[in-house]
Amino acid sequence: MADTVHKPLEIIGLSKNYGDFKALDSVTFHMEPGEVFGLLGPNGAGKTSLISVLTTLQSPTSGVAKVFGRDVTTAGRLIKSCIGYVPQETVSHGFFNVVEVLRFHSGYYGIANNETQIEFLLNRLGLFEHRNKRVRQLSGGMKRRLLIAKALVHKPRLLLLDEPTAGVDIELRNSLWSFVRELNRDGVAVLLTTHYLEEAESLCARVGIIHKGKLLKVDSTRTLIQSLTGREIHLRVGGDLSGIQHPQLVEKKDDTLIFRVPSKVVVGDVIRDLKLSPERLLDVRIREGRLEDAFVHLLQETR
Amino acid sequence: MSQTQELRWVPFKSLLKKETMRFWRVIAQTLLIPLVNSTLYLLIFGVSLGNSIQVGSGHPYIAFLIPGLIMMGVLNNAFQNSSSSLATSKFHGDLEDLRVVPITNLQIVLAMAFAGMIRGFLVGLVTYSVGQAFFLITQGTWMMVEHPFALLYFLCFGGFSFACLGIAVGFVAKSIDQLSAVGGFILLPLLYLGGVFFPLGNLHPFWQTLSKANPMLYFINGVRYGILGHSDISAVSCAIFALVTALVMFGFALRAVKRGPYQRW
How much is the mean pLDDT over chain A? Predict the structure, then answer.
């Protein structure tokens, strides 16, 4: 069940410096209970640094990071018990097979006999038939599934996914996201860092955009798209187009007029403004703004 | 069992099991090579050259040699176990696991140190068994252990100290080369010059004084006292030194585990 009393994650003025380099610069945001939150940013934006602070791999230079109301710098052990962490890079575990790795990992969380959960994860992630293989014998995709299984052996309440689909084929990506949705329905809050924006758009209720260590914007995915992007209206029109003028007309292509308008403008207003007779209007296509457009727009604004 | 109790014991037991299984999986490296080495040392030094080497205590040279070989095996393997485990984990990238799970620094140090001690003891047992066989063949009788508790004391503190040293070095080392350099250029010479093969009294007084700065000398002489009832250094001095060394090495290991780094090579 979701913890409805405490926020899964609360970051207040968090900074992390490596020498003179500011990996995180006064980052502030929070996650709501049971939420899938996307942290988006280009490579080197500070996403992994933030996750490293949450998992206590790195200590913050200043600021506060709280998980379910507890400070990561003072209650690390308790926090680790309720976090599942999927790192960016796969690991090998040279001497051990899949099921042994999961048993050891359960043990690290204080769970001596965890066969039911291990078997569930092996089946759910398609690893059951590979359970007796040494990890080094697994393909890259299988290794990534194992990372996810490791992160879930102790049934965490907050799942940190650090670029979990980097270099992963479409089938695995889809099965992973359906599993993440399932976990989220069961009350697991998810922090996802990614630069695959279509993933964030389909999964995350809210997103934060981070760049050069600074959090540029946090909002609901829909609001962010609407405020930072427009919509493209493609009208196929019969007859001569040369006389048609409109302030938001950006391109004429064969028999098609392309308009770029703010998200709140409806297509009917544009058609009415053109004063076209209905028989000249052959087709209407609308391309809504994407998170990717919002992301690019925001990054361009900061340059 | 409460959650607190589970977090106290289960993570420790899991890591101990993993570290023990790790060396058991490569038993040819961990036990058979020391078995071959011990046999060769005893054959060359104990049997072939032994008659020409005099030891002051009145024991045959092979009796002098066996305790030294046992302790050399224990110290070397305890160090190797923890340091090579960390090196392998850094190479494979799974060392970060220990940082993101709720296992304490103390549990990490104790689990890795005990695993190193277990490997050291097994190698010690193998060396002792081979030594007994050689002793029986050359002397016609079994070699008795004079002070079993003293023997156990030095084996425990020696194994623990060097497993902890392996943890500290394993964390600090930035590459396999650095790790090999510590083993090859520092530990091995100190072991060879720590009185495994020759009595301290056979050296020039200057070298005798210098040798007393070699920590291996105290561990090796402690074990020699435990088995033969006689050693070049007083057993009390050896015992105090072993205790202090164990505490210092434990401190180094704990500091290394706390500070890392845990990142992959």
Answer: 85
